Amino acid sequence: MEAPGCLDRWAKENDGLVARWRAVIASRNDSVVKQTLQQCHHALSQLLRKIQGLPAAVLSLPLELTVLYNTLIFQINVADGFTNEDAQEIEQALVRVLDARGLVRGEMSIEELWQKILLNTDMQQLAPVVHRLAGLQGALWLAANQLEKLKVLFEALSTTEGHTALSSCEPDRAILMLLSTWALPHDETTSLLLAQTSRDLKAVLYTAAAFLQGLRLMEEGDPTAAAGILQEAAAGLCSRRVLAEICTSIGCCYQRMGKPQMALHYWKQALQVDFQCVSALYQSLVLLRHLGKTDAELEALGLLHKALEGSGQGASSTSLHLLVRVELLVQVPALVSVLSTPNGSEVKYLLARRCLQMGRLKEAVEHYLDLMAVLQEKGWQPQEFLHRLPRVPEVFLEATSALLQQEQYQDSLTVSDEIIRRIIDLIPNRLTILLGSDQGEQGQPVQSPVIESSPPQLASSPTLSHENTESLNCILWASAAYLHQGQALAHLGKHKDAISQFSRCINLLFKVQFIRTGVAGDEIAQEDLCRQEQVLQAMKSLALLGRGCQFLQLEKDKDALRDLHLSLQVNPGQSEATQNLLQALWRLGRKQEAALYWQKFQSASAPAAAQQERRALPLYLLSQSKESCLLDEALTGKIQDYISTVTEDMP
């Protein structure tokens, strides 16, 4: 017969392709490796079709299943994971095995096909090739997170070898126990070369299953058990990249157990294994921030940004000597939140924000300018929500604040203009916000807000309108931009222009009216709207203060006095407003009022509520809302002399 000759020729073809692949892998030439991967896959696919072109026969089954095994291993790599085609190939192969054995089959699921083949005693001589193919089937189900099917399959594999699953085994460890006790049959009948040995496939399956189970336990809130299983995964067969991800996960377990130093140890270990493991860097900086180690946090942020910029450019930490690898079986980002990482823009924002908070203004400005350039390229719109970033106008407002503090006033004006240009057409003529009664006034529960454009209408069942919530945001953003422009122009000595911008800010803020009602509703929505009300009031106070100070510069003392009075009504005890009010009163000859205000200010202490309100302000307003301001010594000296004189003249 010609069949044996064909089988020998096909066996040599299989061995030649696998040998070629092994030689290329040893060369470590990435471009040649990828090209050869494609070529070997194509050639093995053609070889498989030749073999399957003949009727299924017992004599050819070992070769056919081996070539299928090798073809699928290459195919998984070419497709960067499992596909429906892989499952169909395995199912077709099982059907041919049954046909070759002359076993009756009807309409059977893939699980039933495996059961029939593995539990049939006539199949023992095919055990080595069938077990290899079962290992690929298990890998496919593991990648699809179909763990129950995987468990049933390996229970059947254990039964064929005379083993039984341990009934006393903990549910979390059942699959791991089945994989660890999987006895691979010795293949004495063939010397066919394999693209990946059965032993390596078993090791990869065990590592992937342990990694997956550890991640599950961590997400389910059992970090102690998760750490134990993840440490088993770390001892398994995997690439440096996967090992770094496992170490990162173990660190997260220890963080959740309240052991921050152990967490940092494992994250450091992850970075030693693979510097491109950005999730370890990200988790480290989050913990360092929590621990108050600012310098270390900023250093970690810088390293994270460099790592993200260089991702894909450095040496890959994934080895292709294993075609079926853990990373193809465990899709980490889809499974666990702790291993997700921000992108380059998000890290750049975190760097800018932290530098601004810590007063490192030059660095903050550089980072904000870089980030704004990226956002400008994307053609941002105010309505857009960027993943894990604040709204874009807020990023730009923080940038203007940094530029103001760095005394780059013209740049601050330019950025503010960009904000206003994009937002001004979205602002309504009038906006009325209906809030519930304050909690604690009359023992009433917190009520829900309603936001409405003109005309306002009371609602018995308050709900937040997205459109009108956006209108409020736009008013606040544009007002803050005008406020920053007024401050920049004031520093440049352009007092009239500064007054115009402060006035625009004030006029915008007065478009919003807060009305308290007795309508019950969502407490969280109420709190959010109350915070926005605090922001609006703070800006109103700052704009009135800024305009009042500019009137003083222009010696329009009565106008200044009016604005400073209003600023203090909105924010009583504001030291800078008080100082300028004293100056206005003194220059207007109203010395007695100045003395009374000064005495009142001296006896008052900043209430805790005022401090709390300041902490609730967004970062772009904090630098403008000073906690304290020393009064002018020359002016206060005059006021004290006046008080002394008046006291002496009293009978």
Automatic annotation (TrEMBL):
Gene3D superfamilies assigned to the protein according to its UniProt record, in alphabetical order: Tetratricopeptide repeat domain
GO biological process, one term: interstrand cross-link repair
Superkingdom field: Eukaryota
Region (Disordered): 439-465
InterPro entries tied to this protein: FANCG, TPR-like_helical_dom_sf, TPR_rpt
GO cellular component terms, semicolon-separated: Fanconi anaemia nuclear complex
Annotated protein name in UniProt: Fanconi anemia group G protein isoform X1
Lineage, opening ranks: Eukaryota, Metazoa, Chordata, Craniata, Vertebrata
